[in-house]
């Protein structure tokens, strides 16, 4: 085990094979999502795909950095720290937008705790704040002079993410319960429940990952989570892989296509005006 001067470097000898394998898995998932997005014209999925790309770049940089042991350079070290840290925020952005589309296609907007018009805006703004804080903090970690402040900023970003994910889960579960009880003209015709379950799974894994990262940085470089590499693969890489593959199996693009079909026989022009759907 290698002890280092500050949290921007590793407290262990990082595994090259582990980083390469994870990068390949994210690459496969990202290609699958790109193909589904283009085929279904579900452009709101772009942030999710960028999340996958960030994971690929992050773990590729980690493999390069691992190969530099024990003389790490700033470039690969910074790239892996920043890209792996912020990728889940990009996944979360698409998760938030998916719920709004489920509300529209089921005509169940009235059962939401937050007005659908504000739903995506509120959660995406929170996601952006979290993204910027985590990116800035992760970038500061690789400099010994700014590492302590970087750690604090990362924890602030993670707290923001945890708060908004908690609010999102409460909103989503409440909507699910109320729509199940009351129904709607369209809900019976739409397989919305399986998409809700997919949202719960993906939201939960991002939530657990954020909790893990907060505890990891709160314990500091001498804590057990930053002393052993396998923790980050279990509670970050594996959880994000689960999120990506859940959305391959239950693809939210189905909701997008239902919206497109609805639009062709519906005069609800606000869908087009608000940019929820794009048509050929």
From TrEMBL:
Where is this protein primarily located? membrane
Keywords, in A-Z order: Membrane, Transmembrane, Transmembrane helix
Compartments annotated for it: namely: Membrane
Its record classes its membrane topology as: Multi-pass membrane protein
User: A GO CC term?
Assistant: membrane
Q: Which residues cross the membrane?
A: 12-32, 44-65, 77-97, 118-141, 153-177, 197-215, 230-253
Pfam (any one):
RTA1
The record ties this protein, via PANTHER family, to:
PROTEIN RTA1-RELATED, RTA1 DOMAIN PROTEIN-RELATED
User: Would you tell me the protein name for this molecule?
Assistant: RTA1 like protein
Recite the lineage of the species: Eukaryota, Fungi, Dikarya, Ascomycota, Pezizomycotina
